[in-house]
Amino acid sequence: MKQVAIITGASRGIGAAIAQRLAKDGFAVVVNYAGNVAEADKVVGAVRADGGTAIAVQADVASAADVRALFERTIAELGRVDVLVNNAGIMPPNLPQLAATDDDIFDRLVAVNLKGSFNTMREAAAKLEQGGRIINFSSSLVGTLLPGYSAYVATKAGVEAMTSILAKELRGKNITVNAVAPGPTATALFLDGKTPELIERLAKMTPLERLGQPDDIASAVSFLAGPDGSWINGQTLRANGGMV
Q1: Which of 19, 103, 115, 195 counts the highest number of beta carbons within 10 A?
Q2: Mind listing the pLDDT tens digit for each residue in 148-180?
Q3: What is the mean pLDDT of residues 44-59?
Q4: What is a single molecular function from GO for this protein (predicted)?
Q5: Are the beta carbons of 79 and 69 closer than 8 angstroms?
Q6: Distance, CA of 213 to CA of 95 (rounded, Å)
């Protein structure tokens, strides 16, 4: 039986790249999506066209009931869960400074980025096979601490803290818990609404003088999910080309 990886928010961008990479690594993948079934089905189709195993499962990670159903359906259809990749997250294109942040923006960021990661980690802690992997998603903005990102960074700093604590709490289960913290990455979501000048400036922030690509992030996840990452635990890996 193939090992099984759930990737949240996997219908496009970084999540889609992770799903396709882990499928190439030999995992059966669960392409979780919140609302865009057509995009999720495209990812499933691409995996299957390459000879892999994939299913698409709708779930809003902010809902504990949805997350429970996501794990239950995965086990019912694929028999097990070995890897959780907590990729789902939101960042509105224009984030105000703290004093101008309204309750709706704050509450939505917390619900998806922080509570969503908590919901999936809680299920994974109970349902992952021995030797499993939990790979959360933070952001390199936790290191840059730029104005305008206070609420967003607070959610990601919380994810990093939960990552380290859960790694300790899972003693005896041989399950590792780590986080990946990307820098600026060339996805449609990231590029939308940005001028070419801003994109160029962001690209030049790294010593490697380019934006990250979804495959760069997928490679980091592949390492943590695979045998070579077995001794890495409770850590946050900043995949940002040296930006911070």
Answers
A1: 19
A2: 999 999 999 999 999 999 999 999 999 999 999
A3: 98
A4: oxidoreductase activity, acting on CH-OH group of donors
A5: no
A6: 23
Instruction: Bin 192: left if φ > 0, else alpha if -120 < ψ < 50, else beta.
Output: beta
CA 189 to CA 170: how far, in whole Å?
34
Catalytic residues: 152
Q: What pLDDT sits at residue 148?
A: 94
8 Å CB contact between 181 and 140: yes
Strands 28-33 and 133-137: unpaired
Percent of the chain at pLDDT > 70 equals: 100
Length of the chain: 244
Instruction: Confirm if 40 and 56 have CB atoms less than 8 A apart.
Output: yes
CATH architecture of 4-239: 3-Layer(aba) Sandwich (3.40)
Residue 120 CA to residue 142 CA, distance in Å, equals 21
In a 10 Å sphere around its CB, with 0-12 CB exposed, 13-18 middle and 19+ buried, how is residue 124 labelled? buried
- pTM of the shown model: 0.96
Q: What stretch of H or E contains 83?
A: strand 83-86
Half-sphere exposure of residue 220: CA atoms within 13 angstroms, side-chain side: 25
| 2 burial via Cβ count (<10 Å: 0-12, 13-18, 19+) | middle
